[in-house]
Structures are given as structure tokens and as C-alpha cells.
Amino acid sequence: xxxxxxxxxxxxxxxxxxxxxxxxxxxxxxxxxxxxxxxxxxxxxxxxxxxxxxxxxxxxxxxxxxxxxxxxxxxxxxxxxxxxxxxxxxxxxxxxxxxxxxxxxxxxxxxxxxxxxxxxxxxxxxxxxxxxxxxxxxxxxxxxxxxxxxxxxxxxxxxxxxxxxxxxxxxxxxxxxxxxxxxxxxxxxxxxxxxxxxxxxxxxxxxxxxxxxxxxxxxxx
Amino acid sequence: xxxxxxxxxxxxxxxxxxxxxxxxxxxxxxxxxxxxxxxxxxxxxxxxxxxxxxxxxxxxxxxxxxxxxxxxxxxxxxxxxxxxxxxxxxxxxxxxxxxxxxxxxxxxxxxxxxxxxxxxxxxxxxxxxxxxxxxxxxxxxxxxxxxxxxxxxxxxxxxxxxxxxxxxxxxxxxxxxxxxxxxxxxxxxxxxxxxxxxxxxxxxxxxxxxxxxxxxxxxxx
Lengths: 221, 221
Description:
Chains A, B: One of its GO terms (molecular function) is glutathione transferase activity. The structure is a homodimer of 221-residue chains. Chain A is α+β, with helices and mostly antiparallel strands and 221 residues long. Chain A has a domain at 84-195: Up-down Bundle (Glutathione S-transferase Yfyf (Class Pi), Chain A, domain 2), CATH 1.20.1050. Chain A is built from 8 helices and 4 strands; from the N terminus they run βαβαββαααααα. Chain A has helices spanning 11-22, 39-44, 63-73, 84-118, 126-149, 160-174, 184-194, 200-203, and strands at residues 2-6, 27-31, 52-55, 58-61. In chain A, strands 2-1-3-4 form a 4-stranded mixed sheet, covered by helices on one side. In chain A, strand 3 and strand 4 (58-61) form a beta hairpin. Chain A starts with a strand and ends in an 18-residue tail after the last helix. At the A-B interface, strand 4, helix 3 and helix 4 of A face strand 4, helix 3 and helix 4 of B.
């Protein structure tokens, strides 16, 4: 059985879960309080971060290394296309979300509003929240610009880039931080991806002390 | 001709340069003041970051997407092995340096001491410098632990993981922030990688206003 050590509102864990689910690989989720000083967990990943995936007798760390491993060992359905230029575009957009979007938006909203309380490391920093709320508009506009020209974020097919983006946006949607009225294309894109069977487990997530808003799991939001 | 829009002390640009050089691909370096509001550059990469690579008629962004593209289109010599588990380990260590090491060390030392001055965005924050100087010790120890068991960072062969690590450490060495006496294995590893022809252009780098220390380019440091 594949096991994923995870935190429900980690976009990196959600990306791995979406990739596993799209490939119809069953996984046992193990909630990991990675912020506590747990030596067992540190042995699994000295970086002290989730996700950590146990699969094929291996302990895999770092979300993109994990997703590429899953893609290489379970190539169907393909979430990274064959052509090198198209692969580079998928990976560019994955990095856009996991690096730039994470730094400018997810860390400033989800981490301030949720992780800080869970880990008892203080109150939300209003300046960060303000910066994150401003930055997400630029990112939604950029997504809209991409979706003006393409069916999915990296081209005509659904790829890992869409799951990376949806992983971040779904965490923000859990705390009602996405203005779905800002861009029609982005809303339609999210409605499509949200209605995939792979998304079901994400929509059923519950973080103790932070009940999701009603629209979070609603396919007709 | 391949063109790399870059900043000499960016570890991400250095990783790309090392991968290109190891594969004997000539590149024209274009210094890019990415912090200035340059619309031409923003069109090439809306993320506003270096590296940006022009190659095969494509404009490629995000260092790991670029390196994977080079590896896929120029597979020899291989910098990512064939076996999926070994590939995952290479990518784990690349992410370790490009994410964790960058966040805990490079951004706290190189960015505070160099980038802030170059971009006229204030003085080094002493708390960050102190945190970075402390964190690098843990990372050097972790590298030493890996090199206790392996010839190179991700296994018995030189891989992209070594270049990712060397890209960060060489930036820190440029500002004399690496204690090479801390771990003998790490010093020997760096001596080996530093003496490769692929490293020559990195050792010749000069950043205006920040002359490198004498030991920086010395193969017998």
C-alpha cells in the first residue's frame, strides 16, 4: 500500500494526491504534524517537510521529485507530454505555482491564517495577508491570460501544471481567499478540474478548527 | 547560439551554466538586471526572474524546467541517471538546495550582502545574516553525512544534484561564507567539482563592486 505523510492544507501534498488519484493509485493518507519535533519523521525526511511518499519500498521526498517518479513509473494517463518543449512548459508552470505563487500568495494567506494557529506560532501578520490578497489578483489574471489561448494551463491537454495550480487554489478556496468572479476562464477551468474524480478526496478534507465554507466542495460554486 | 539571460551570483543561473558546460554546449551570457522594471525582459519571463534560456527557438524559464529540457535534448553525458528511484534521489537533492538551502542560507547571506546593495534595497539585515551563517553548518554536515556513504551527493556518479549544490556553494564562496574546514568530505567534493572544465566560467565571474576573495578561483583552496 502506498502511504503519503501529509498535511491536508499543504498544496505540495495536494499536488501529489491529485497525481496519484488521476493515475488511479490508491494511497493511505497519514496526517503528519511536521512542525513538531518528531524524530521518526525527521529520519524519513531530514528536511522536516511534507509530503513524504512510501511507495515501491522507497521513501520519496520533495513533491516534484515524487510527481516525476509517479509519472515515470505509471505513465498512463500522461500528465507530462512527450515533446521536450511541451514538457518544459508544464514544468515551468508547476514551478510558477510551487515557487512564485507559493511565495507570494499561499504562504501569505494559508500559512498566516491557518498554519500559524495550528502550530501555535503567533497571530496572522496583517501586512502579509494584505500582500497575499493583492498578489492573487495578478496570478488569477495571468492564469486567465494563459487560458485565453489554451484549453488547459500548459496547452491543449490536462497536465501536472493544472494539478499544481489547482492544489494551491483549492487550499486558498478552503479559507475563502479566491475571488472566482475575477476571471470567467479561471472559474470554468477550476469547475472542470474540481469535477474530476481525482479531486474528490481533496474536497472531503477537513482541518480541525477550520471548517470549510459551503462553496468549497460545491461543484456548482 | 544559445543565450542565457542571467545574473552572475544567481545559484539558479549557475546551475544552468554548469549543466550546459558539462554537455559542452556553448552559451552566450547576457547579464540581466532583472530587478529593474524592464518590459522586454518581463515579456520573456512574466515571472521577472533569471535564468531565462533562449535555445532551439524556445524561451525557457525556471531553472529546473530548463535543466530537464537540456538533459532530455542532450542526454550525454547523463546528469540524471536512468533508474526512476535514482532519478527521484537526484531531484530530491536538487530541490533540497534550490528550495531549503536557498531559503535558509543563500537568500540570507548572498541576497543580504550582495543583492540588496546592487538593487539599492537597503542594508543587510543582521538577523538574517546570523541565521544564514548558523544554518549553513547544518547543511554542510548533511552533505558530509551523504558523502560519507556516496562518492557524489546523489550516488556513485556525478549528477545534476552536485551541480545544484555547487551552484549555491560557489555563490557563498564568492563572498567567503563557506567554512571549508568544517567537513573534509565536503571540501574534497568541492575540490573535485571545482576542477572540472565546466566550472571555469563560474570561477572567472566578477560582480562589479564585489571582487571575489583570492581563494575563490584557486583549485587548491
